[in-house]
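Sync notes, pocket subgroup
Present: LS, DG
LS reminded everyone that the earlier model was apo-only. Rerun requested with coenzyme A included. Inputs:
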Amino acid sequence: MNGTLLASAPVAAPGRVREPAAPAFDGAGLLKTGAIELGDGLRVWFRPIRPDDAVRLQEFHQRLSPESQRMRFFSPMRELSGGLARRLSRLDFQRRVAVVVCLPGDDAIRGVARYELVRDGGPAEIAFVMEDDLQGRGVGKIMLHLLARYARYMGITHLDADVLPENQHMLAMFERCDFPRSAVWAAESVTVTLDISRGSCDKHMLAG
Ligand SMILES: CC(C)(COP(=O)(O)OP(=O)(O)OC[C@H]1O[C@@H](n2cnc3c(N)ncnc32)[C@H](O)[C@@H]1OP(=O)(O)O)[C@@H](O)C(=O)NCCC(=O)NCCS
């Protein structure tokens, strides 16, 4: 994906819906609201998730195809409960971090990338999901690099992802990222480990 960073300080044009609001916590400047133009010309916005995103997360989940829901949660899950949506949107940005992607002038969530550090000194566990129409357009790879850069700043050296073995799309995304990686295959899942202490995190920075 050859995204070009266009702007980071959204300004509402007269008569148009405002761009996503700036986050309350900007993660030392590394996770700011910012726009990138994708290789196909679509302009998308990235921002840290906010506590008031719980309902937007539920709506986003309902728009996903059953296949995308299954790839993300490893089982058919037609609805995201209110409790889970709140848990997934109220993060501390220390151990639990998430970035969402939106389209211009619309705060609806179109994709989420997150990590959770379960154990000090261990890898952080990452998970991704994009709206079906947005898949394969390079957004996941941008979000991986945004998260990795932030995780590296927080002292994390490895990211782990549990992926269904048939999830060629996710495995392809890791194959094309800039970090050394290893994979452990089991019958029901593949655990991919990315070494983010090496490789470049700076390809898709959101400028202040
Ligand atoms: C997996 C997922 C998050 C990837 O995000 P994405 O935005 O679609 O991925 P990208 O477009 O950034 O793809 C990254 C790379 O993989 C390549 N790729 C994407 N789909 C591919 C496919 N089906 N076959 C081969 N390569 C593929 C892209 O070409 C891109 O490489 P490039 O930059 O060299 O062109 C997204 O497809 C998704 O939400 N899937 C459903 C949920 C899911 O599987 N979650 C993972 C559970 S952790």
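DG: The helical segments are 54-63, 66-73, 82-89, 139-153, 168-175.
LS: The longest strand covers residues 96-102.
Action: DG to write up.
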